[in-house]
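Tip: read the tokens left to right.
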């Protein structure tokens, strides 16, 4: 089977890139042929046989002239249609697997795939993995950055709320462009051409299904994780948060609680815009960004980890990774997080954004080490799909 993987970035940039790189490696091991389409970049690590890619678009940099054309290019891209046509004609894929494509590649690529397939009189399935809420919400998070509140107003299909709330980078102009982009493609009914939508949580599926066009196309497939050898490290006396230090991750709430619990040592590992605030809390030890064995040891030796997110998380890898290394998770009851934690077995849940509830939950777990030891034993029995198992399911969707 020939599979064309489509993603705006073809270099290591975030979770969706890790996803497509690992998927493609496994699919090739299974005997399938995989090529890629997206933007060109000096750090690009995957590609296609005809070297056809779109021009790199940097919304946070670039020349003044290029920025003037961005409002048009983010809605519709003739270049994307022209370049992907070259790949389609050469590679002749059986499946086109879309990932993050809005604003840089634009849904124009969907129209071109269907036009090519019709001209060639051949079947070419189009699948989409929803890594966020982009098809429902122009700022992709279902969260108003101005108020900090989770928001579902655009799920009604009235994207003017994005402009009113200045939901994209706090800019009315950018928000207006985002709202127009969503309205334009809704009018063009482009998403009816998707054959299937992979949602990484049942929560995300429930939101996607509010759109009648998507409702009969969605399927839940939680993210895959690498198979790891059992970790049996002696537990140490600290509570761990690892991930991004940002407002939507609930860092403000967690810091407030840390200050009120000076008797409990906390360790933080990661980076982000709120990192300077950690310096004001004496019982927090900030270890910065870690990876590999160093991070594995840090997770494995924690009494428990905290995941206090305050936005509609999808399928956070940190929650799964913690359990894989034998450490229970205290997670916010929001988005897809509750789907990954068995309360009373592999961790506990608390009301997202509720500092008092978080504080009480931390105190409860900290005061009962035998309970966290019991949870840790259950964590080692937790099972999540490996990339091999995930790809077996994926092939069934492809065919």
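Filled-in amino acids:
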């Amino acid at each position: 089977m020939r599979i064309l993987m489509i993603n705006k970035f073809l270099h290591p940039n975030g979770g969706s890139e890790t996803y497509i790189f690992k998927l493609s490696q496994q699919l090739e091991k299974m005997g399938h042929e995989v090529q890629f389409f997206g933007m060109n970049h000096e750090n690009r690590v995957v590609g296609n046989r005809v070297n056809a890619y779109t021009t790199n678009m940097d919304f946070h940099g670039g020349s003044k002239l290029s920025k003037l054309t961005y409002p048009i290019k983010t809605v519709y891209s003739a270049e994307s249609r022209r370049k992907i046509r070259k790949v389609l004609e050469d590679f002749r894929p059986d499946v086109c697997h879309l990932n993050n494509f809005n604003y840089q590649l634009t849904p124009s690529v969907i129209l071109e795939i269907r036009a090519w397939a019709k001209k060639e009189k051949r079947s070419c399935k189009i699948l989409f993995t929803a890594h966020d809420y982009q098809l429902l919400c122009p700022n992709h998070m279902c969260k108003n950055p101005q108020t900090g509140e989770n928001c579902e107003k655009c799920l009604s299909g009235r994207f003017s709320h994005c402009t009113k709330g200045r939901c994209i980078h706090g800019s009315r102009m950018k928000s207006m462009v985002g709202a127009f982009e969503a309205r334009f493609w809704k009018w063009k009914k482009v998403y009816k051409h998707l054959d299937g939508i992979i949602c990484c949580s049942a929560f995300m599926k429930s939101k996607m299904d509010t759109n009648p066009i998507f409702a009969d196309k969605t399927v839940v497939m939680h993210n895959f994780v690498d198979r790891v050898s059992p970790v049996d490290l002696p537990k140490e006396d600290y509570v761990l948060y690892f991930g991004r230090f940002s407002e939507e991750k609930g860092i403000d709430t967690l810091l407030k609680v840390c200050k009120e619990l000076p008797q409990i040592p906390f360790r933080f590992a990661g980076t982000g815009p709120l990192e300077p605030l950690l310096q004001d809390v004496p019982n927090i030890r900030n270890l910065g960004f870690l990876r590999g064995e160093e991070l594995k040891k840090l997770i494995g030796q924690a009494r428990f980890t905290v995941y206090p997110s305050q936005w509609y998380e999808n399928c956070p890898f940190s929650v799964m990774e913690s359990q894989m290394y034998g450490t229970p998770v205290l997670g916010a009851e929001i988005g897809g997080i509750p789907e990954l934690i068995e309360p009373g077995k592999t961790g506990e849940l608390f009301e997202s954004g509720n500092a008092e509830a978080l504080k009480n939950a931390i105190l409860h777990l900290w005061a009962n080490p035998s309970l966290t030891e019991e949870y840790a034993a259950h964590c080692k029995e937790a099972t999540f799909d490996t990339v091999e198992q995930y790809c077996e399911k994926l092939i069934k969707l492809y065919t």
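The mean pLDDT is 92. The chain has two domains: 2-131+195-224+387-398, 239-379.
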